[in-house]
Amino acid sequence: MAPFDPLSAAIGGALIGLAATMLMLVLGRIAGISGILGDLLAPAGGARAWRLAFLAGLIAAPLAIAASGAQLRAPAMPASLVVVVVAGLLVGFGTRLGSGCTSGHGICGIARLSPRSIAATGVFMLVAILVVAITRHAL
Amino acid sequence: MPILFALFCGFVFGAGLVISGMTDTAKVLGFLDVLAIRTGTWDPTLAVVMAAALAVSIPGFALARRRGTPVLGGELRWPTRTDIDARLLAGAALFGAGWGLVGLCPGPAIANLATLSAPVLIFVAAMIAGMAAHDVWRRTRETAKPAAIAADG
Q1: Is A24 on the interface with B (CB under 8 A)?
Q2: How many other β-carbons are positioned within 10 Å of the β-carbon of residue B73?
Q3: Where are the domains of chain B?
Q4: pTM assigned to the model
Q5: CA gap B153, B150 in Å, rounded
């Protein structure tokens, strides 16, 4: 794991906040990734073009950074594909049922001081912390 | 124009994820592993990223609200619900469980497609399947309801 680098964390975080701000200020849309992807796939999604463009930009960013000389490294993933699939299903189903993820609730929702988003963020953070405590320290 | 701008926003968002280290599952799990505080190996990155993002989006959203309409026209689509219901909490709990297992939430998962890593592709496919499964379940539940009432009546 790369050492804690508060400066890149702050710069990167500010860019995320800036992207969310620009999307609302200019297009009037919430930068919630699970919502953008989920509504793109839903049959009655509507307004597909901007969602597809946003996701394309999301994938293009690491490619552009890699093209500028930085290393494009695949993230560490669990060895068990069963765990990968189960986790993916939980993230997909859960973000749809709970109407949002780290970006929609955690950044956009808390920025609006939405009680729903503050509650959701508290719950998914706590459960994730609990799961890591179990998988890393109890098993 | 709106399409190009959405592409730009996605790009800035993705760059933020990469620069902050949030596409790195080890850093995300290193933050979620709060018991590591005992050994001094806890990684506070995610908290700094969120604080910095909010430091920009809180005044940014306030500015958008004051302006009243988006720069490129249309309306500001703020979410309108305020009730904390069981679906919200159950969904958040399921999402948190999946997030804690791998360290990927939807944004970093999609950005990491750029690496063409097979486990990431499988994760995203499963995530999409989970979303589709939810939508199908929700639709069948909602269309099944009137029938159930009729059966009872």
Answers
A1: yes
A2: 11
A3: 2-115
A4: 0.94
A5: 5
